């Protein structure tokens, strides 16, 4: 056998040996890539967990502020509710207008009594009936305010917004108009409409800058 023939016979064996040696190397290369991918994935998961934890903490802080805001506005509305017409009202306080018609006055007082006694759903019905029966009454502004407040107390937030906005639209100079917008903001917060609540509070500051409600609105905006 010549040297050339011997080399030709040896060539397949050499190729086989090379392939055999190359296979573990290729496998080792794939394992290294897999390990790197796993490490990268673990790093990404860790970063996501840290981001989620931070987001949860921020959300908790926001919820705390929101609860404080709702409690504060509820307190303000409760304060406003104490201004409901009463036989024992302070004589130096602004007086509720009196209706010229005794029957009209009686209808208003009946609804007001329900409101004072905390029977808000019944009070809302009474004030709504009064407004429908006496739309041009001197008591219409007050009736709208207490209708909206009754709806808020009954958790009828959407109708409360509509009622208070009607009051502000139809009676913009009514002393209760800025307070009505405070109730609107409270309704919107209850409905998780933060953008709307901010707009309502900003409107109080813009349209009723000298009112006590404007000062309240400024402090509330800092919490939203």
What keywords describe this structure?
224 residues, mainly alpha, Serine Threonine Protein Phosphatase 5, Tetratricopeptide repeat, 78% helix, elongated, disordered N terminus
What's the short story on this structure?
It is built from eight helices and no strands.
As residue ranges, the low-confidence spans are 3-11, 14-19, 86-95
Q: State the name of the first-level CATH class of the largest domain.
A: Mainly Alpha
Structural class: mainly alpha
Shape: elongated
Measured by DSSP, the beta-strand proportion falls in: under 5%
Q: Please tell me the total number of domains.
A: 3
What is the architecture of the largest domain at the second tier of CATH?
Alpha Horseshoe
Mean pLDDT over the residues: 77
The portion of residues assigned to helices is: over 70%
Family: Belongs to the CpoB family.
Keywords: Cell cycle, Cell division, Periplasm, Signal
Protein name: Cell division coordinator CpoB
InterPro entries: BamD-like, CpoB, CpoB_C, TPR-like_helical_dom_sf
């Amino acid at each position: 056998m010549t040297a050339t023939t011997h080399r030709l016979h040896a060539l397949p064996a050499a190729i086989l040996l090379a392939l055999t040696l190359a296979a573990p190397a290729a496998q080792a290369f794939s394992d290294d890539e897999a390990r790197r991918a796993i490490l990268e994935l673990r790093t990404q998961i860790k970063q996501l967990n840290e981001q989620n934890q931070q987001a949860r903490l921020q959300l908790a802080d926001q919820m705390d502020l929101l609860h404080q805001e709702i409690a504060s506005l509820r307190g303000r509305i409760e304060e406003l509710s104490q201004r409901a017409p009463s036989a024992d009202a302070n004589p130096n306080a602004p007086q509720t207008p009196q209706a010229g018609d005794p029957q009209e006055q009686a209808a208003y007082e009946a609804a007001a009594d329900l409101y004072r006694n905390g029977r808000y759903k019944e009070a809302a019905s009474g004030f709504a009936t009064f407004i429908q029966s006496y739309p041009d009454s001197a008591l219409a502004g007050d009736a709208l305010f207490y209708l909206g407040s009754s709806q808020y107390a009954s958790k009828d937030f959407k109708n409360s917004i509509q009622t208070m906005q009607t009051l502000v639209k139809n009676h913009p100079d009514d002393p209760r108009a800025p307070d009505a917008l405070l109730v609107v903001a409270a309704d919107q917060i209850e409905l998780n409409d933060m953008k709307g609540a901010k707009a309502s509070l900003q409107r109080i500051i813009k349209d009723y800058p000298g009112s006590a409600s404007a000062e309240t609105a400024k402090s509330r905006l800092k919490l939203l």
